[in-house]
Specification:
Strand 21 and strand 22 (338-344) form a beta hairpin. Helix content is 7%, strand content 38%. It starts with 5 loop residues before the first helix and ends with a strand. It folds into 3 domains: 6-172, Sandwich (Immunoglobulin-like); 179-189 and 244-370, Cupredoxins -  blue copper proteins (Immunoglobulin-like), CATH 2.60.40; 376-494, Immunoglobulin-like. It contains 4 helices and 34 strands. It has helices at 6-12, 36-45, 195-208, 481-485, and strands at 52-57, 59-65, 70-76, 85-88, 92-98, 108-110, 134-140, 145-150, 163-168, 178-187, 231-232, 236-237, 245-248, 258-260, 266-273, 280-284, 289-294, 297-304, 306-309, 314-320, 325-332, 338-344, 364-365, 385-395, 398-402, 413-415, 420-427, 433-437, 442-444, 450-451, 453-456, 461-467, 473-478, 489-494. With 496 residues, it is mainly β. It has a 6-stranded mixed sheet, with no helix packed on it. It has a 6-stranded mixed sheet with strand order 14-22-21-16-19-23, with no helix packed on it. The chain has a 6-stranded mixed sheet with strand order 25-24-27-32-29-30.
Length: 496
Amino acid sequence: MPELSRRNVLFGAFGLAGLATVSACGGTTAVPATAESVRRAEALRRKAGQRVVTAKLTPRPTTVDLGGPVVNTWAYGDSVPGPLLRARAGDLLRVQVDNQLPASTSVHWHGIALRNDMDGVPGMTQAPIGAGKPFTYEFTVPDPGTYFYHPHSGLQIDRGLYGALLVDEVADPGGYDVEWTVVLDDWVDGTGRTPEQVLKGLTAAAGGGAAGSGSDMGGMDMGSGMGEAMSSQLLGGAGDIAYPHYLANGRVPAAPVTLTAKPGQRARLRLVNAGSDTAFRVALGGHRLTITHSDGFPVAPVTTDALLVGMGERYDVLVTVGDGVFPLVALAEGKQGNALALVRSAAGTPPEPSARPAELGGKVILSTDLTAAAAVRLPVKDVDRSHDLLLRGSMAPYRWTINGRTFPDADPLPVEAGQRVRLRFQNMSMMFHPMHVHGHTFALVHGGARKDTVIVRPMQTVEVDLDADNPGQWATHCHNIYHAETGMMTTLSYQS
């Protein structure tokens, strides 16, 4: 694949220093990742006696056994997901990246309100990490929660380049006996196509009107992807790609990972959707799930049969484990197939790989149904600046936009430090979009959960508020990586 994606080449033409001279409005200038204000913000996060946690990531070509299918792909070392990284809120995380790929790369720390020059977006916050080159990320992790890391370079996340990042509370409140982390993914690399070939097929089919172009609805397309109609009563157009595999912790359903506990124990389950084009409906057969956190931040607990996890979203749930062997099923919403893990507390015959527990058809919670816990609600404050983000796109041509433009030509969203900012995500397409803002968490105006990634369903509007307290240039985009790569991205741009 090319060393840089189209957006990195074009936006990177400015150069990082050039960002300081880009005017967004009224004679103001953009605050670059190299600004003194970025360094000051990081200095305020650092405390005397700060603990330093070190790790190393080695992205490289490798061969991975997915539990039967053996694929040639790119991964951090030889495992999918990559190494589990763990720190404590307030720690300094120092991660050395040794790029052994034949292409440039980067690492984005998804959901972390970190310093801008460590956010891992080539051309916006740093130069790309060249093939054969090292780079060290160093930043304070300010907030406890469930996060993950992945490249922000082209379609690399749709290979095996991702892993969980857990930030513990300084004093763990407990309330559970065992902890499981489950990373979900949709998988195509090494099965006869690379992600780049998939995107080429989408754009070529759209241009030629062949299978894969979907049914055009006045520029608002349901999206039939690679020949399979993908739609959901919950999400509308549910994706563009019929993946051959869906994974839980790097394993296909025929060879699932096993999560163990004793009957009656309370388990804390951390769910991460690292997929590129797939939302997952998650349920545990024979159990109900109590949602306690969304995107790292606590919510007023809600008990449900199932929950829907969009790309880039994370959830923590509590479950009291029954006696036996149970299927933890992540159904590919609106598609054919599922990921699977087993929960085992006793001897017994495991369920079939295609198990469909009844809970999948019960109550389903989305992030917009949640309310933030009182301790993490944004203080009441007047909105200083509002921005509308109109989300449009179609399968024919395959093009996804914010306010009618594709990145890097999209107009930035100017903000100033100290402002309360409202973003209105208005989905004018028939496809759902999980919208992600880097470097910040936001509050849903209607619902109230603290989030950094939120599903915006077709023809609906989701309003979010954030405090502009982390200077720099911050990517704001759809976390369907194929939508982002073809244009659905802009910049939350601090001005001075």
